[in-house]
Amino acid sequence: MLVIDTLGMGGVERYVVTVGNRWAEQGVEVTVISERGEQVERIHPLVRHVDGPYDEVRATLPRAAMHLQPIIPQTRPDCIITNSLATALVARTARASRTHCERLAWRACRPPHPSGPADGTGRSRCGGIPRCEEPSRGRRLVGINGDGGAQWH
To answer: Which domain holds residue 24?
Structure first.
């Protein structure tokens, strides 16, 4: 599950759509939670998009969390990836129990740098954020560790 306030024309919004589409094409069940925006039309048909009251998430955190609360048990995500502290708070507040979600990751990892890891730890050279591992077809994202590295099952 990818949670973002809006799917407007920004870079993070394009990243969410690109990553969600790529994972869906590889057989991962993906749900994007956001307010509508220009990027919605780019979402792959295999990606479930749930529109909600997230545009002014800082001002309406309780309302956004109440909207998200029934969606988590319906979709049973293995991981919730958010784009900001505000959307992370919404997701954390909405989670009724840990049985519906294994991990909550605040920041999504960036695409791998062409030069690869600098020190063998999996970290890319751009921004010090670790590389994402790509899933094999049919695998589900089951967690993102504290450094942002993805784990696939």
So the answer is: 2-152
* C-alpha closest to that of 5 among 72, 61, 77: 61
Q: How much is the pTM?
A: 0.63
> Tokens 């869906």 map to which residue?
24
Q: Report how far residue 96's alpha carbon sits from residue 137's, in angstroms, rounded to the nearest whole number.
A: 30
Radius of gyration over every alpha carbon of the chain, rounded to an integer in angstroms: 15
81-92 burial string, b = 16+ CB within 10 Å, else e? bbbbebbbbbbe
pLDDT (tens digit per residue) in 32-63: 999 889 999 999 999 999 998 877 776 778 88
Helix (H), strand (E) at residue 16: helix 11-25
150 near 109, Cβ under 8 Å? Answer: yes
Nearest-angstrom CA–CA distance, 60 and 129: 30
Number of domains present in the structure of the chain: 1
Longest dimension (CA), the chain: 44
